[in-house]
């Protein structure tokens, strides 16, 4: 898809082709705000399988599978076989994990590291553990890998949760606890994993050290300042420039976990009846999971937040839910019935929608039935607001599959008992995820620009120009392997890197575009249909020849 999805895949491709695995680049411009491990993993996948969209997704997909496996093993170790199975099931089939792994973001990998950190912490402190030193080393390795994935939040979140747990259990000042953690050796492991890239990137992009807290247009202070000060400190304080992001309202940030953990969030009331007294392994794990969740959510309550920032608490919530579901208490039975009610209502809603769109025509692609709200797109779920009743006419098959899924869930929740009912709910989610996948295929022309890339590949050679920022047509760069000039595109994520001394001159203004467009050499421009009027004010409308159109986006040429 366009935006961050293709951006991550293209950065990895650029690393592979250029041989520069230190500084990420887009269109030749340094891209300094993110840690590189996800790029490295995608590039390795390219090296093995070739450069494809599906090979770009292998690292994230494997991380999601591995996360479910680790949660299962963690739950089995802490609570027993049944609770471990349920915890793994929650992780594998909750809405949030599926939804936020459709996009190439490293948060599922970070979640895996955070989960590994907490489990390693517990194993290192467990008196019955035969190899505490090994688990202490795994704890440090998890932290180090997390830093090279997502920055300092990979240390702040788990360490904060651990300190809160140690304080509540009156072990914070225990010499024996810190001795079993092998803190000095752990610091060396973290530095060995995370320090080399940070040092190389700082040396490659001077000035080396700048600690100013001012961030504004046209300023360039090197890699160190942008990555540590602007991207970590100023972003937390909501003072980062450019401010190319939005933030979820605080109450919604907390309450949305009922959706992210759906359908298993129906069993949260059952968690209340569990024991959190740390007198045994199960009690210690529940208390740690609670500290893990509360610290991270409170931390982001005082920061800017995206919907997926809280993904690292999913394993903690899955452990609590799995432990509660294994009790088969009255609250669990009520939760099962509640899922059945929600699933039944979903079936009714789907049938009503299918009837309502029965005779609505579906010309072209789904973009014709959507209403754009670009002001919301800085949120990861911003495009949901584009849906209209007419758009569901394009989604008849996904709706039917989703209806079947919810019918399975409603029937299982009401007709089956115990473990069978819970497995039926899991089957409901598997089928529903396939319905969602079919819907994403329908949205492909709208969320991506592959048809325009294919049209460009079959057209005569020429200079490519993009009207606006790189992110709006990033999938074109991935599918064509080309670079472009960016018309008024010095914005958002590429703005800071554009002022680096080594940044290429790919940014042009209206006058340069008009000059290029009037030359006899062939040129192409990619633009949203809504922005076409701006181009017609710069050049003669008769010189804008349409080559292809898809999803409300156009590929135009200066020659027929």
Overview of the structural elements:
By secondary structure, this protein is mainly alpha-helical. The protein contains 25 helices and 8 strands. The chain has helices at residues 4-18, 37-49, 53-56, 58-79, 81-93, 95-99, 107-125, 132-150, 153-168, 175-181, 183-204, 222-236, 250-255, 257-260, 268-272, 281-301, 314-325, 330-356, 396-415, 418-447, 450-457, 474-480, 495-498, 510-518, 532-536; strands at residues 25-26, 29-30, 463-467, 485-487, 507-508, 523-528, 545-550, 553-557. The chain has a 6-stranded mixed sheet with strand order 5-4-3-6-8-7. A two-stranded antiparallel sheet has the order 1-2. Helix 4 (58-79) packs antiparallel against helix 5 (81-93), helix 9 (153-168) crosses helix 16 and helix 18 (330-356) runs antiparallel to helix 19 (396-415). It is globular and about 80 Å long. The mean pLDDT is 94.
- Quaternary structure state of the chains depicted: single chain
Distance between the termini: 29 Å
Strands in their spatial order, largest beta sheet: 5-4-3-6-8-7
Q: Low-confidence spans: pLDDT under 50, at least 5 residues?
A: none
Summarize the structure.
The protein is mainly α. The chain is built from 25 helices and eight strands.
Primary descriptors:
560 residues, mainly alpha, two-stranded antiparallel sheet, 25 helices, 59% helix
What's the layout of helices and strands?
Elements: H1 4-18, E1 25-26, E2 29-30, H2 37-49, H3 53-56, H4 58-79, H5 81-93, H6 95-99, H7 107-125, H8 132-150, H9 153-168, H10 175-181, H11 183-204, H12 222-236, H13 250-255, H14 257-260, H15 268-272, H16 281-301, H17 314-325, H18 330-356, H19 396-415, H20 418-447, H21 450-457, E3 463-467, H22 474-480, E4 485-487, H23 495-498, E5 507-508, H24 510-518, E6 523-528, H25 532-536, E7 545-550, E8 553-557
Parallel strand pairs: 3-4, 3-6, 4-5
Antiparallel strand pairs: 1-2, 6-8, 7-8
